[in-house]
Design goal:
With 655 residues, this protein is α+β, with helices and mostly antiparallel strands. It is built from 15 helices and 30 strands.
């Protein structure tokens, strides 16, 4: 309301309201009546003639089910659910929202907050085009570590994992983004590098796609590959895996089929899929490609009767699209398609493994992973369930190496306790176990679950892995996944999933899934003190400080010599047992170098190490190479002993 200053005392006095007096009160009551009638009318229409609810599948269906399960009146979630249902099934909203959305776009170039409007009406999903405000290293490390852990675990059952990151539309087509939008295009190559540095076999699609015009790879109003882009991706996968078959030897032919209407899923996402909107946008027709058999007939993908040697899993970039058929064309062999729409990229892996013996599994598993999946707060947390299932099926009890732990606190040990929404069941004090975060270390719980299913969360640093512990089972094993070498606290939480779950927890161990029978001992040499050195210019420093130069800090190093002629097997692990009598307050650094100078060294920096610590370092990037050196370094005065014993463990099984 307008206001004026009272000159007598400096206070602010409100001017007479527009709703004062008879006419004002009539106006106010009329507006209130119109509002109430409109509200009641729309509510009546939406109640008596609701629109059909959309069909949900995959992760969306699971989230919807969880939302309904957790709805409570006391905390307001029940009211949120009612508003959510009204929005989904509102007849009034569906009638008036499309023309209103088109009006906003025509006049103001405005769409819903889920999308960005780029040049020449190109649309981009906002949460994929603009990454979270976290460093590139943090974004790529979490996802890469989880995938590396899965890679090591799948190798135990003879499955070779190949990750295929899908570059974002905002990166491939960045010239069409709105001015000033930075998709941080360094994330895609950084993710590929992070995977390869962890020894994960990876197909890099971006360099090949960068050679093509953007409009040939993505639809302006769609979020998925065009058919032409699918052919390029399939050919690149087959080429990098050395599975491509010469054109003269293929039993199918790839040819253009004319043109078709491209996908418009982004128009649907922002409410611009009405007939009027589609006529306004008039998307250009896309060149269509298809695979034809030797008789000239169209040949679409048909799921093989038995599991072939290659399977592909992933999201909507692969599910219900022609990528699989194009792969079959370039490799000239059948491929199993296990991808699902609207799910965590690793979710379908569990369904692929379930109820199949090791002999019935594919030898190569291609895992299509959209790069935007690593933007999640906890990317790929389903990897915990996958690895728990794999460890259960291989029967690891006799072959796990138990890593001694200093202190494990169990709130109630050896007696049944009821588990509600959240309960801390174990706290492991750290500093004594360090690992590279790539699945070389696991936490194993032994006990008994009854009355219902438990969800177990294993926290190592920031990332979390999750698995369910069903009633009637006595053990569960989850990987410890982290961005950096971990030496802090491990918390293990339990939550009730259904029923009145009870847990009798007997013990908690940090374990490593290694083969005791395939171990090679390394030679540990003496600790070598390194005296203070000259300054960077080569001139000796004066201890009295007369030259203004400072002595560098004293340091030490210790060499570990691998057995002569040893070739590192896939997924091997280096286990160092420290013998230092006191805690190394200055920490230490471990550097492993292969005899291939083109490969960067593996470096693990541990800021603080307790005495008698165990260190686990995966040697995945050095598979097939010989080790040139293993060196442990530290700052300060040299201890009498650091590494007491070093061992190289081979995996129990490799594909």
């Amino acid at each position: 309301m307008p206001a004026e200053h009272d000159r007598t005392d400096g206070l602010i006095r409100l001017s007479p309201s527009a709703f004062d007096g008879r006419l004002g009160r009539f106006t106010a009551r009329t507006l209130l009546a119109v509002f109430c009638v409109t509200l009641a009318g729309t509510g009546l229409v939406d109640t008596l003639f609701p629109a059909p609810a959309p069909k949900l599948a995959g992760a969306e269906a699971q989230e919807d089910q969880q939302l309904r399960h957790d709805a409570r009146f006391a905390d307001g979630t029940l009211a949120q659910l009612a508003e959510y249902d009204l929005r989904l099934r509102s007849r009034v909203r569906r009638t008036f929202a499309p023309p209103y959305a088109l009006l906003l776009y025509k006049w103001f170039r405005e769409v819903q907050g889920t999308a960005l409007v780029g040049r020449e009406r190109w649309l981009f999903l906002a949460d994929r085009a603009v990454p979270p405000d976290r460093s590139t290293l943090e974004l790529v490390s979490r996802g890469a570590s989880a995938l590396a852990a899965l890679d090591r675990s799948l190798a135990q059952i003879g499955v070779r994992l190949v990750v295929v990151p899908v570059p974002r539309k905002a990166v491939v087509c960045k010239s069409w983004l709105p001015p000033g939008t930075d998709p941080r295009a360094d994330i895609e190559p950084a993710f590929v590098d992070a995977l390869r540095q962890r020894g994960v076999e990876t197909v890099d699609l971006l360099p090949r796609l960068a050679e093509e015009a953007a409009w040939r790879l993505f639809d302006p109003n769609g979020s998925h590959w065009t058919l032409y882009c699918q052919t390029l991706a399939a050919k690149q996968i087959a080429t990098q895996l050395d599975l491509i078959v010469a054109l003269s030897q293929r039993t199918s032919v790839l040819r253009q089929m004319g043109r078709r209407r491209p996908e418009i899923d982004l128009l649907s996402a922002v409410g611009l899929d009405s007939p009027a909107a589609l006529e306004y946008f008039t998307p250009r027709l896309e060149r269509a490609w298809g695979v034809y058999d030797e008789n000239g007939g169209r040949s679409d993908h048909v799921q093989p009767g038995a599991m072939p040697a290659i399977a592909i899993t992933g999201t909507s970039f692969t599910a219900k699209r022609q990528v699989t058929r194009f792969l079959e064309h370039f490799t000239d062999q059948p491929i199993w398609n296990a991808a699902e729409e609207g799910v965590n990229p690793l979710g379908p892996v569990g369904a692929l493994l379930r109820d199949r013996s090791d002999e019935e599994l594919p030898r190569i598993l291609l895992c299509e992973v959209p790069v935007h999946a690593i933007f999640a707060k906890r990317p790929f947390d389903v990897v915990g369930q996958l690895i728990a299932d794999i460890e259960q099926r291989v029967g690891q009890a006799d072959s796990l190496v138990i890593v001694p732990t200093e202190r494990v606190r169990l709130p109630v040990q050896g007696s049944a306790q009821e588990i509600g929404n959240r309960k801390l069941v174990a706290e492991i004090k750290g500093g004594f176990v360090a690992h590279d975060g790539n699945g070389v270390a696991h936490v194993r719980l032994t006990g008994k679950v009854s009355g219902g299913t438990l969800r177990i969360d294993a926290l190592a640093d920031a990332p979390t892995t999750i698995a369910t512990w069903p009633a009637g089972t006595t053990q569960i094993t989850l990987p410890l996944v982290s961005e950096e070498p971990f030496g802090g606290l491990h918390y293990v939480l339990a939550r009730g999933v259904d029923g009145e779950a009870q847990l009798t927890l007997e013990r908690v161990d940090v374990v490593a899934p290694l083969d005791r029978n395939a171990v090679r001992n390394c030679l540990v040499q003496d600790v070598e003190p390194i005296p203070a050195s000259a300054d960077a210019g080569g001139a000796p420093s004066d201890p009295n400080g007369t030259t203004g130069e400072q002595l560098s800090a004293a340091s030490w190093s210790q060499n570990v010599v691998a057995p002569a002629g040893l070739v590192v097997p896939a997924h091997a692990t280096l286990l160092l047992k420290l013998a230092a009598p006191d805690a190394l307050e200055g920490g230490l650094s471990i550097e492993v170098q292969s005899d291939d100078p083109s490969l960067p060294p593996l470096v693990m920096d541990i800021p603080h190490v307790r005495n008698q610590a165990r260190i686990l370092l995966g040697l995945d990037p050095f598979a097939g190479q010989r080790l040139a050196s293993i060196q442990v370094r530290g700052e300060g005065d040299a201890p009498r002993a650091v590494v007491g014993r070093a061992q190289l463990f081979a995996p129990r099984r490799t594909p």
